[in-house]
Amino acid sequence: MPTFEPSDNLQQLYFDVKKYVELQAEYLKVEFVEKLTILLSTLLILGLVLLFAVTALFYLFFSLAYTLEPITGSLAMSFGIIAGIYVVLIAIFFLFRKQIVIKPMVTFLSVLFLTKNNK
Fold this sequence. Notes:
Layout: H1 6-72, H2 75-95, H3 97-114
Helix pairs in contact: 1-2
């Protein structure tokens, strides 16, 4: 039966703790990269969806302006009405920015960065 000296045990403990700390640091890096990838891909997808939505809205409002021309008698008046609709939409967005943007973003980021992954 081999006998171990206390110094051998302390040295082994030191190496084990050192390896554990290195593995934990590596795990934190991998977890950070994973969450950063999720965040960036979500932002990219959201940006593309917003770009397509704004483009579609632009063309819909453009067609609405031409549809309103016979009713208003003037294309300039139709575009003025569309501009007014945009101003109202911007005001609504500004008034409800906490519910529309801030709360969902805080919820998403807190879930992403503050919850443990249970895979």
